[in-house]
Amino acid sequence: MNVVKFVMVLWLMALVRNESCAQISTSKFQFEHLTINEGLPHSDAMCVVEDNLGFIWVGTNDGIARYDGFELKKYKLPVNPLNGLTSNRIQVFHKQNNGTLWYGAERAGLGYYDVNKDKFVNISENLSSAVDKSTVQLLRKASILSITTDQSNHLYACSRDGVFVLTLGNNQVLEKITRVAILGNQLQYTANEVILDSKQQVWIATVNQGLFLLSSSQQTQAQKAPFPSETVRAIQFDSKGNLWLGADTKLYFISPAEQKEFKNFTLHQASTSIEDMECISIDSFHRLWVGTNFGLYCWEDIREPIRVLENKPQLFLPKDDNPNSINSGRVHQVYEDANHILWLAASAGGLNKVDLKRKPFENLQRRFFQTPTLPNNYVNAVLKDPQHNWLWIGTRNGFSRYDFDTKSYTNYANRELNGDATGTDVSTLLMDTKRTLWVGTRYNGLYVLQNGALKKINLPIPSTSIESIIETSDGFIWIATFEYGILKLDKAGKVLNIYSTNNHNLLARQFTHLLYDKTKEQIWASTRDMGVLLFQIQTNGLKLLQKFSFEENNPNSLSVNFAWQKVQDPSGAIWVGTIGGGLNKIEPLKNGQYLVRRINIPESNVEGILQDKQGNIWIGGSGLGRYSPKSGQWIHYDVADGIQSNSFKVGAAYQDASGILYLGGIKGVTYFNPEKIQPSLQAPTVRFTNLKIFNQTVQIGEEINHRVILPAPFNQLDELEIQANENDFSIEFVGLNFANPAKTSYAYKLQGYNSQWVYVGSNARIANFANLPSGYYKLYVKAYNGEGQWSKIETVTIHILPPWYQTWWAYLLYLGLIIAGLYLYRKITLRHQKLQNELSLETYKTEKEKELTDLKLRFFTNVSHELRTPLTLILGPLEEMITMPSPFRSKLLLVHQQSKKLYDLVNQLLEFRKVESGHISISASKDNIIPMLSEILLIFQLKSEEQQIEYTIDLPQEEVELFFDSSKIEIILTNLLSNAFKYTASGGKIQVTVRTVGNSSEKALFEQNHLSNHYLEISIQDNGVGMEASALSQIFDPYFQASHTETMKLVGTGIGLSLVKQFVEAHHGEILVQSEIGKGTTFTIKLPYGSAHLKPEEITQNAPKELTWLQNPPQALQNIDTNHDASHGQKVLIVEDHPEVRQYIQKLFESHYQTFTAIDGQDGLEKANHLMPDLIISDVMMPHVDGLELCRKLKQNPKTSHIPVVLLTARSAAAHQIEGLENGADEYLSKPFHPQLLQTKVQNLLHNRLLIRDYYQRQILLQPSAVSIPDDTKTFLEKAMKIVEENLSNQDFNVQELVKAMAMSQSGFYRQIKSITGQSVVEFIRDIRLKRAAQLLTSTDLRVQEVATIVGIEDAKYFRKMFQQIYQYAPSEYAKIHKNAK
């Protein structure tokens, strides 16, 4: 026997070697492995079975494990008390018809799985009283090798101690046990296997005793079958009733007729000898599998057994160079589950899994034991030879030709090194019409293969990456390079032209892929950074027809500009794969245009793209994806489905004439027939697997806190009851899908808590819940197989018990407490009434005192009323006098400022009186508060510069809608900011911050009468002198003034902060203060959102003031004389952020001027520099850059300092107007303005500018002037002209010399000249030189060259050009005309 085994081993080794070398074919079976490395209890898996719930159970030499596709749950059995041996060496599993799972162990008998306790129980622990105890003890020590059951609830267990027959009652109670005798009354023998036939007869395979049959009527005596072999190792029935036997080294079958006759079986045996058979299995596809100690055998279709036995089987053995081969030669059991997954229990290999319905993906990969083999697994290009059954493969180590007929490789341009070596990086392949193979490489040039000879083509460009090669119908070769554009070659390899950015305006030089449209003679070119370019092939080159690229905010543009491989479908549409932007489609329209659509798929890097004959788009990227344009369905395939790896490479995709698709990646080439790759229709089966409370696993039947939480498995559970102190739990689940578990995704929802499904991936198979309200809930879970199929929904009912304080006895206790409380309340009320009487007396005294105070306050208010009249009479004349020219204007402004301040104080006193008398009210309307805040805060900008205080404002960028009274808000901010500037020294800091708390669209939330959410917060912080903590509680009291420092002189009335507090509270807001001596003070105002806090009478629905005056249509300029200038040539720039106002003003002036508009200050500044308008009309309050800042920047820029600026604002206070004028504004109008007033002011400003320029031009041309301009302007011009005329002959006289002579700064002088003449200083000097030249030409006989030299211009050509530009004649013609005139 040992000699035979030795010979068999030698024969198998030779077989393995020959098979490895020949590489006959890529097996359609791929083996996946579940070993001890993945958590299996032991390296030896001995048996496997599927239970009724769909879980896979694995018996090993160290216990049992339940597998759900992701996790292994381990079970350990106790030591056998009868012999002290372990019970964990499991030999066999059997599933009874009722679903009970039975196991057989080595030297430990048999047992079953108790689902209600989630543990395995030995049958000796569940006996009836009448059972034979001695036979049970023998069974308890037996090694069980095979188990079967019949419909009469009999269990047959074969062992090395014979066959035991067990009669089972309810709940697997052993009611009777007997032993089967053979050959008379022989009870002790070794039985390898028992199996039940369709007639409920039991066949017994024994060692050295033969084959026996036990009839259903006879349970104790077996009849020997007429089968010659004495040792039968394995038996199995097929679907036709044929009995297959493994005996000695032969495989036999016995037909049903012979079984029935039971006489002289005909020996139908296989031609192949098989050593040490362990098991026989027949799958759903009629394959016969035989597991042995020397490999796994497989016969294809056995529906005709006679023919099958004549064929040689396929032998599966471990292969070192193939990770998808079987990993062990010792196969103990072959088992097929309900989903057609074949499970192999193997020694040292654990559990092997074979998907009998796997996707027929085939791979070409490097084999370490094959010579030659693929030179490198990293594939960049694939090409099917149209005439031969060859596949050309470009790799990082040359390229290879694979012959599908001989299964062999022929390699080219590769380095012969051990391992996955790199060398010539082949990037693209083309077989032209003359069967010349063009080979493009990355930075190693271009090659052609002709008649087996490889030749390099010399290219007139530096080394580059050749990414794509095509041939057009005229026979020319076009090559896309990654740095130097597109090359055009003839068939001989001669470069005819190079198309790039520097010689053909090609827009791009980095090309990645070319697609040739033969019907239109067009080339679609993908680029690295310019998207896709469409070229028309012409005789003299390429003509760019259209560019398709990424456009911001345009969904009908490419998603990114990095495009690579493309494919054209039958409709002419181009499918574009991009790197980083997924899939795009360029569709031709009937009008000749194209529409670009972005296709929503999960894959962002489309590295390979093909379209099958059914119209599906196949995409290689991170795995392989199939997109259906008709349904929009996306199906993803990964390495577990049989593809080469989860990484495919750019451009390595090809479709042959028969429709086979080839895609290359980092582990070789995957090829397949797309018609045979169909989505799986098998939906996962959802099962609940585990319960955790406070992250601790709860076992079935386990008692926790004196109660059983999980009394049964989830599938048998009526409801899951959770107590209040357990209300932090999680339920784990799984979708049983063993074909590819990682593709399974899940969705769950808890009815009664959330109505929306929660979608999770395969690694998040758990639903967590905490602090659920008491009541009944139902958890729904479903699973998705990743290929279009959702499972049935699995549910579990959950009952959350209420806490003790919500139970009936707790409510009874509450009732008792209420009664006691009422009694106590009555007692306290009587005592309170006594105190209230005493308080009433004190209140009476207080009211009398208040009446006296009111009398005094009324007198004070009356005096204030009387002060308003004389103040009004003072302010009116003052404002008129300020507008008149006067040497006392500055003093008048001071008087006006102080009078206005006194007037404001009187108004505050009157407001204070209203507050004191309880008559305060607000008129709140909903508006965006940010512009008003910004304008009020900006008023103090000038004050901060004067006091040298760092003044910063932080406002939200978005609009903030709020109900507020603008007049009250202005008083609030003015008072607070005035105090901040008053008590902050020079060099200090004041920070104003406005921020949104919560959501402005929600109503404000109050907790205990304080704002808690949804409000606007305004903070004014200074680092001034600060206040003592003791004073903070009194600062809002009337007439109170905090003592800041001993040296600071206190000014004011002490009523400002009192008004602030009252106005804030009138808005139902809050004001807080924080202060510290020497560190400063912070006031924080909170104004609530919404209108729920306001009374109806406090809300007004007035339209925004700024727009009411727009309701009247604008009228053109009227009654204004415009004949004195060419107004239609003058430019007016209107800067206004509100579109309606902007349009209104534009209509006022568009009939007489060229009008331009800008949407904000930044836009206005840019357009002013570009357009150089004659006048600018600007709003003050605008985003980004406001009107004041715009005016300041225009006046500081010499180029634009002369442009008149008219400022418009909704704020009409004189302080605002003064600030605008101080920033350089020429006019300042308040909104709403009178349109004719604005038109007149604009007309006058432009007219005055023209008068000044007219005077200048007349003086230059020596013509009489009737223009009247201010004396100071005329004096300034005459002085400047005189200095220039005195230095005419000085060629070195320049701008700096003139500025120095005028005793002015260069920028100041520049602004003056530009404002008066509209010219730069250089132009001013030039015109004066030309004026003198005109004098000399008309009054002397000097030549033109001499005149030019006298006026300081040496270049005669330049002199003639400038002279003609000013005087419209050449110098000689000008002299002739004017001399003749004399």
UniProtKB/TrEMBL annotation:
Alphabetical list of Gene3D superfamilies matching this protein: 1.10.287.130, 3.40.50.2300, Histidine kinase-like ATPase, C-terminal domain (3.30.565.10), Homeodomain-like (1.10.10.60), Immunoglobulins (2.60.40.10), YVTN repeat-like/Quinoprotein amine dehydrogenase (2.130.10.10)
Which reaction is recorded as catalysed by this protein?
ATP + protein L-histidine = ADP + protein N-phospho-L-histidine
**Occurrences of domain Histidine kinase (ranges):** 862-1091
Q: Which residues form a coiled coil?
A: none
| UniProt xrefs under SMART domains | HATPase_c, HisKA, HTH_ARAC, REC
Source organism per UniProt: Flectobacillus roseus
Q: Write out the entry's keywords from A to Z.
A: DNA-binding, Phosphoprotein, Signal, Transcription, Transcription regulation
Q: What span is annotated as the signal peptide, if there is one?
A: 1-22
Q: Which PROSITE patterns match?
A: HIS_KIN, HTH_ARAC_FAMILY_1, HTH_ARAC_FAMILY_2, RESPONSE_REGULATORY
By what name is this protein known? Answer: histidine kinase
**UniProt modified residues of type 4-aspartylphosphate:** D1179
- Tell me which residues make up the HTH araC/xylS-type domain: 1278-1377
Keyword Nucleus appears in the UniProt entry: no
Q: Which residues form the Response regulatory domain?
A: 1131-1246
